[in-house]
Amino acid sequence: MTSPVNKISKEMGYTRDDFMRLLPKAVGHADMEVRDDEVLAREGDGKLLRIEIGPESERKIGFFRIPKLPVTLQFSGYSEPDVAVALERFGRAFQKGGG
After folding, report:
1. pLDDT classification of 57: cutoffs 50, 70, 90
2. CB distance 45 to 29 below 8 Å
3. How far is CA 76 from CA 58, 68, 70, in A?
4. Angular region, 62: left φ>0, alpha ψ -120 to 50, beta rest
5. Residues 6+ apart with CB under 8 A from 1
6. CA 16 to chain centre
7. Is 79 in contact with 8 (CB distance < 8 Å)?
8. Is this structure's pTM higher than 0.85?
9. Do 47 and 77 touch, CB atoms closer than 8 A?
10. CB of 27 within 8 A of CB of 41?
11. Residue 1, pLDDT above cutoff 80
């Protein structure tokens, strides 16, 4: 059974360019359509992931400057387990750091 729409907002520590470079890995084999501040990732079985990209800014901590990019993920046609799998893949694609 699929849920109506699951909406999740995140603050990513990436520039827009870095986010867009890594995004194909995050959406797997879905067909991506990039519009200005929106990405539509469609899977063949009726699933649609809509990603809204907010304005890029930075977080300042002392002398450090860390990029900050708000994104909103909207899952349509996904079951709860499908959303969990997609979020895990999304998280792995954008994971930073080592071991």
Report:
1. very high
2. no
3. 30, 26, 20
4. left
5. 79
6. 11
7. no
8. yes
9. yes
10. yes
11. no
